[in-house]
Amino acid sequence: ECPRRSGKRRIEIIGIIHKRMLTVLLFIVILGILVLAHEGGHFLAAKLNGVRVHEFGFGFPPRLWARRHGETEYSVNLLPLGGFVRIAGEDGRDEGTERGRSFSEKPFLAKFVMLGAGVAVNWMIAAFLLGTLQIFGAPIAVSDAENIAANVTVSAVAPASPAASAGLLAGDTIIGLAAEDGSAVPATIREVQKFLSIHAGKEVRLTLRRGEDEPRTLSAVPRTQPPEGEGPLGVALVRVAKVSHPWYEAPFRGVFVAASLSIAVVQGLGDMVGSLLADGRLAEGI
């Protein structure tokens, strides 16, 4: 029995290591693609503005391979966690560069385009991927009023709440509720809230789906008098549905989602800076 358990444990550890190695490899590949695209944006903008590019390098030295094509040297380096474009005059020195072909000689607008081109390319990639996701189906939040197949998902867990004590996590999908006097398969947030309110002060069993794991059941006792701003269980819920759109709508939706996320990021950074300037600390929840 013991050797069998030991062998099973060894297999589980190997499986975990294998998954983590694949995750690291995937991260490096995705990072490499994003960096290559980002630096490619700077490269193309410099070329279009007539600026000399000395080198377009992927990764950081030591160098593994390099080849010159025209006036630019293209290199591949050992550390694949970045990249760079060496543009004439970017450091303020123009030695050996033809007049008018230095970054420092270009007008403000051209410099702005060259500096922002990398971010612009990454943004366009994000919009394209988000648009593609719309074709195959993207998970989005929907209201209870929408007559569509959806799952009720935990979006946040309050500290020191029954949900936290039971082990619920953000991202858990509630696929079943049960108590001594009945059970339910909730399709809306309202159904979950009603069931918990009816069974406040009694043990409730929640069947959850967490990622790709097998469904699990956790027990909790909803509070009869929860703190202000919290429900009996102490969770925030969102109704999530997988919605797809026709291919001809997808690009516009991708741009819309990318723009919405960008605005949300800017607003979040603005709120953070405002909190720091106002009272010297970050707002709660940031």
Structure in words:
The protein is of the alpha+beta class and 286 residues long. It has 3 domains: 2-106, no CATH class; 117-137 and 246-286, no CATH class; 140-243, Roll (Pdz3 Domain). 42% of the residues lie in helices and 26% in strands. The chain has 5 helices and 9 strands, in the order H-E-E-H-E-E-H-E-E-H-E-E-E-H. Strands 3, 4, 5, 6, 7, 8 and 9 form a 7-stranded antiparallel sheet that branches. Strands 1-2 form a two-stranded antiparallel ribbon. A hairpin with a 6-residue loop joins strand 7 and strand 8 (216-220). Mean pLDDT is 87; it is low at 282-286. It holds the Pfam family Peptidase_M50. One of its GO terms (cellular component) is membrane. Keywords: Hydrolase, Membrane, Metalloprotease, Protease, Transmembrane, Transmembrane helix, Zinc.
Write down how many β-strands occur, each being a DSSP E stretch of 2 or more residues.
Answer: 9
Mean pLDDT: 87
Q: Please tell me what the overall shape is.
A: elongated
Continuous helix count: 5
Strand content: 25-35%
The helix content is: 40-55%
What's the main sheet like?
7 strands, antiparallel
User: What distance separates the N and C termini?
Assistant: 49 Å
Keywords: Hydrolase, Membrane, Metalloprotease, Protease, Transmembrane, Transmembrane helix, Zinc
Cofactor: Zn(2+)
Subcellular location: Membrane
Protein name: PDZ domain-containing protein
